[in-house]
Amino acid sequence: MSEEFEGIDPKVPPSGAGCAECDAAGGWWVHLRRCAECGHVGCCDSSPSQHASKHFASTGHPFMQSYEPGEDWFYNFSTSEMYSGGPELAAPTSHPVDQSVPGPADRVPANWQSLVH
Questions:
Q1: How would DSSP label each residue in 32-82?
Q2: pLDDT tens per residue across span 37-56
Q3: Cβ atoms within 10 A of the Cβ of 45, count?
Q4: Distance between CA atoms of 49 and 29, rounded to whole angstroms?
Q5: C-alpha pair distances (Å), 37 with each of 40, 85, 87, 104
Q6: Whether pTM exceeds 0.90
Q7: Would you say 52 and 68 are in contact if contact means Cβ atoms under 8 Å apart?
Q8: Burial of 9 (0-12, 13-18, 19+ CB in 10 A)
Q9: Which residue of 64, 80, 83, 113 is surrounded by the most CB atoms within 10 Å?
């Protein structure tokens, strides 16, 4: 992936340590994704609410990056392409390493595995 892509702003920090919508509603997530244009952190498509995909649908921001520790891959919602890396985004580049997956731990139901997509 080139350093210069429309739809990526490496200077924008992430919106927080967890999915913005799930945090606001008291929900939970499986994995987190970060919008590479505006920094919005949303939950992945395996999560019950799929907020990262909904963010793309509502904003048209095409690129997201994994927000998981040790992962730096990008995904382009517009073309369904994955990239093994790309420009380094503003820190932090993942949720805290001590944050549970799925998370947050106090909101994950005991039957969470039956609720994933």
A1: EEEETTT--EEE-TTSSS-HHHHHHHHH---EEEE-STT---EEETTTTEE
A2: 999 999 999 999 999 999 99
A3: 16
A4: 8
A5: 8, 16, 12, 25
A6: yes
A7: no
A8: middle
A9: 64
